[in-house]
Here is the input.
Amino acid sequence: MLGIDSSTKTEDIKRLYRKLAAKYHPDKHQGNPLADLAEEKFKEINEAYHALVGEEVHYKKPKTSGKRKKNKNNYNDISENAKDSLYKGLNYFNGGNFHRAIENFTNALNFSKNPTLYNLLGLAYLEINEYRKSIDPLVKATELDDTNGKYFFDAGYAFYQLKVWDAAVHFLIEAYNLLEDTRKLASACVYIAICNYNVGKTARVEFFLEEAVNYDTENTSYRILLEEFKRSNPDELSQRSKFLNKLDRFSIASQVEESLGNLFHNIFSKQ
Here is the structure.
């Protein structure tokens, strides 16, 4: 499958593997008539590689192509009226009063259509389990700034909670291509794996669980989950149900505290 012979060096095998994996990665062929063939090829490539090398190697995600709408989130452009409502909303959010936070974030958006404000409004809805209401502002944030991996992660998480697997994968794949923080990347990979397992695309599950292990090497839970998956038979209903329960236990909540802390620092540190 890899087109090599016994004299091929390990480093050359790795290079060829990465090249072929990038070419046949299933997520590059979504909606394509050749999607099923690409997925089979991708599975064969992984099986051949692991048989030859016998080790897990981190496959670096391909960079997305095309021009994106870069938004520098210049907080100085937020009007004073918007900042006042935003500050109140953040205080309510940190205090656990998410309904009042929603009121203030909504009011801030009346003065400034900033992607961070939309993201925060969506996160506040997430905190009260209003997943459907969170979708519009979270997606809007990705439209206004499609270079921010965290915005895509949060939107994907909302769709994940609604069990809209295809939409969740779409946004989480974008997050996977944009995020730099390795722990957040690992979280995105686990969510993508769970979504793919739910729609029966098992070849992708192993790939993204391996990615999670490689991105967050200290997280033993990811490694255990990967090993459990390799031992399971997804075609057998009882084992599938058992593994789905394990996947649910390994889900990670969106970490909003970090973004809130950064927001406080960026907006109010100079006042």
Observations:
- The two ends are 61 Å apart (CA to CA).
- The chain has two domains: 10-53, 75-260.
- Residues 55-66, 252-271 have pLDDT under 50 and may be disordered.
